[in-house]
Amino acid sequence: MSEKNISAVILAGGQGKRLRSKMPKTLTEILGKPIIDWIISAFEDAGIEDICVVTGYAHEYLDRHLEGKYPTVFQSERLGTGHAVMTAEKFISAHKGGNVLIFNGDAPFVDSETIRGALDFHVKNKNALTVLSANVSDPTGYGRIIRSGSGISAIREQKDCSEDEKKITEINSGCFLFDVDSLLEALPKLTRNNSQNEYYITDTVEIILSEGKRADAYPAENGDIVLSANDRKGMLELNETARRRMLEKHLENGVEIVCADGIIISPDVKIAAGAKILPGCVLSGKTVIGEDSVIGPNCQLNNTVVGDGSVLNSVVSNEAAVGSDCHIGPFVQLRPGTVISDHVHVGDFVEIKNSNIGIGTAVAHFNYVGDSDVGKNVNFGCGAVTANYDGSNKARCVISNNAFIGCNTNLVAPVKIGEAAYTAAGSTVTKDVPDGALVIERADQTIREGYSEKKLGRHLEKGKKYEDEGK
């Protein structure tokens, strides 16, 4: 940034009635990320850290979402954009001598490059006000930029435009850069003398010009900065626009996408060159994919880190980490706290929760591993589980290096299996097993003659009926 003293105010009090949501419009998600977080990320990337959020409808959701990271002010009445800025006047006043960015909180596609370019333009030209504008093919519904020989003369809202002004294709993006002192002088002069009976922040243009100060518009190369939506159909269009942008970004970075059907990649996801993303994958949060890994088809990864050269097929993972050269899936769930080391194989119908899995271990199929620390080169037979919850408390299992867990073994936590120990199939292990030992923990076999004939009478009659029909 060319100017250190820069702050921002996000106008986030709108309801968006046609969305039919109990939450503020700014918390509506685009590719799994709330609109306001898209905006804040762009501001932070541009070096703006002092941000105030003006809240309104259902403000408690927004307050909770921000978690106190940024100050908020509550707009008790929705009397227009100018009134929303007035609500933040105390915050703005604390930044006298600097510049402040005012932004409508329902437009997710503002970018840091545009903000930096606009601020440089603003400072270089000694503007009291710089409006970020965009040229669009269909300006319907947007405020028009009315230009003069030395900058701009006004921003005219659609309902207040003359027929000639409606033909103007340069529109207001809803993003304004103000010299703070000029803004504070202009706010008390705003009136509600318009068709909406509201205070328009756009009216500051004519007020600032009347005081002999300079106002201009900075045309953004990124025309998407003006995009917003008022209903679910519009939100779908925003999601499609964002999805396409994310796919193009990763393709340009060397990610292989053979078919884009069903692929959704959130904006904070990082994918290394050479990775392949197959159809039906949803990658969200701060997921990271290493080079040469193959993800999909049909994976859902949220805040998950995957190393290099790993293959994940039909995996659902949340808050987990997978090492390099792993094979995971199909039909695997990795729950929060799971850390899988390199060269691990996790087969079909396996669930792992809050566990550490050592190098080279195989959890082949039909297993549940919860709250466990598993060593290197451990083998889980089919159907083996860790019983980590007794109905009141959770406890951990420790399975040491090179152990072999036989089919249908139940490890009742807390229990430790020693190095290279072996559990016999069908055992329910309740006590620690020493290194190199075999544990067999089964009940004695009991046979009761004639039991099934009494217990399964109806079932056997049904079977006899099918036998008769098959003759």
Description:
It contains 10 helices and 40 strands. By secondary structure, the chain is α/β, with parallel strands linked by helices. It folds into 2 domains: 221 residues, Spore Coat Polysaccharide Biosynthesis Protein SpsA, Chain A, CATH 3.90.550.10; 154 residues, UDP N-Acetylglucosamine Acyltransferase, domain 1 (3 Solenoid), CATH 2.160.10.10. The strands form 7 sheets. It has a 10-stranded parallel β-sheet with strand order 14-17-20-23-26-29-32-35-38-40, with no helix packed on it. A 9-stranded parallel β-sheet has the order 13-16-19-22-25-28-31-34-37, with no helix packed on it. Strand 2 and strand 3 form a beta hairpin. The termini are far apart.
Describe, in short, the structure shown.
The protein is an alpha/beta fold.
Main attributes of the structure:
9-stranded parallel beta sheet; UDP N-Acetylglucosamine Acyltransferase, domain 1; alpha/beta; Spore Coat Polysaccharide Biosynthesis Protein SpsA, Chain A; 471 residues
Total domains, how many? 2
Structural class: alpha/beta
Uncertain segments: none
Annotation field: number of helices: 10
- Largest sheet: spatial strand order: 14-17-20-23-26-29-32-35-38-40
Distance between the termini: 87 Å
Helix content: 10-25%
Shape designation: elongated
Largest sheet: 10 strands, parallel
Sheet-strand content, in percent, reads 25-35%
